[in-house]
Design goal:
mainly alpha
């Protein structure tokens, strides 16, 4: 059982490595698009039509994937005053309860995110012509990754980091 849980954590580490590189690439593309938009508007006097919309869609994906990535890295913002005041089993219990509540939210995000993505799939963005399904797909994908990473963090906390 412990071996299987450690394998799960290892798989999430590989997934997060890929997500980290994807975040890097998306941030680079978004930065280039925004820089070019500013340059084109103020220097050339004619801005690109698609860059603002594409940057907005990239930002949606960056926020949701970045939040999932941050959960595993332990760098997601949190109010942990109660957890930091407790020790031992009480601290683990509070962390477990908070993680369960978060996972319930992620399941709601996944279910409703898929429904939203499907309900707007017939709409297209005005300048890029992209189906609105793709930007909205960030909701369930981010929710899935958040759920996976939260459970991996819980596994690490309860069975120990150990040899991976």
């Amino acid at each position: 059982m412990v071996h299987t849980l450690r394998k799960y954590v290892r798989i999430t580490d590989y997934i997060n490595k890929g997500v980290g590189w994807l975040l890097f690439a998306m941030l680079a593309v978004m930065s280039i698009l925004i820089f070019w938009q500013v340059f084109a508007r103020f220097v050339a006097g004619n801005s690109l039509a698609f860059s603002e919309e594409a940057s907005r869609f990239l930002m949606i994906w960056l926020v949701l994937l970045g939040a999932a990535y941050s959960i595993k890295e332990g760098s997601l913002i949190a109010i942990d005053i109660l957890q930091s005041k407790l020790k031992g089993n009480a601290q683990k219990t509070v962390k477990l309860i908070m993680s369960i509540i978060a996972c319930v939210f992620y399941v709601i995000l996944i279910i409703n995110g898929f429904e939203i993505a499907q309900s707007v799939s017939f709409q297209t963005a005005p300048t890029t012509g992209l189906s609105m399904f793709w930007p909205m797909l960030a909701l369930p994908v981010g929710g899935i990754l958040m759920f996976v990473n939260t459970t991996a963090v819980l596994v690490e906390d309860f069975i120990g980091k150990g040899e991976q």
